[in-house]
């Protein structure tokens, strides 16, 4: 009696795959097998979702950085770097003020 594995080995991929009528004729002409066509579709969906994620993140960044709503991505990144540097300078100044006030109050 044949085992399940030996029976499956007799079947080729075309029998196990989706019916050929579900594959467009243009895809058959390009030489795409069912598995290849499915992989291509999945890759397109994945790339599309990645692009929408990037667009969403860029929109969010434009909202966070002042006066950047109408900039291109390259200029937006430059402005973001400059804005972060300016914020870091502000923090250093504020820390200096806090330290000066803390040591000044100890003298009293």
UniProtKB/TrEMBL annotation:
Subcellular location: Nucleus
Cross-referenced PANTHER family: TRANSCRIPTION FACTOR IBH1-LIKE 1, TRANSCRIPTION FACTOR UPBEAT1
Gene3D superfamilies membership: Helix-loop-helix DNA-binding domain
GO biological process: regulation of DNA-templated transcription
Record-linked InterPro entries: bHLH_AtIBH1-like (IPR044549), HLH_DNA-bd_sf (IPR036638), IBH1-like (IPR044660)
UniProt KW Ubl conjugation keyword: no
Full protein name: BHLH domain-containing protein
This protein's GO CC annotations: nucleus
Gene Ontology molecular-function annotations: protein dimerization activity; transcription cis-regulatory region binding
Species of the source: Salvia splendens (Scarlet sage)
Main location: nucleus
Region (Disordered): 27-55
Keywords carried by this UniProt record: Nucleus, Transcription, Transcription regulation
Biased composition (Basic residues): 38-49
């Amino acid at each position: 009696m044949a085992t399940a594995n030996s029976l499956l080995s007799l079947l080729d991929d075309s029998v196990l795959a989706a019916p050929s009528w579900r594959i467009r004729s243009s895809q058959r002409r390009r030489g795409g097998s069912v598995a290849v066509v499915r992989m291509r579709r999945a890759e397109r969906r994945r790339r599309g979702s990645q692009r929408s994620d990037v667009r969403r993140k860029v929109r969010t960044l434009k909202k966070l950085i002042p006066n950047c709503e109408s900039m291109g991505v390259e200029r937006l990144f430059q402005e973001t770097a400059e804005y972060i540097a300016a914020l870091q300078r502000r923090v250093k100044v504020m820390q200096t003020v806090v330290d000066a006030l803390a040591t000044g109050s100890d003298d009293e």
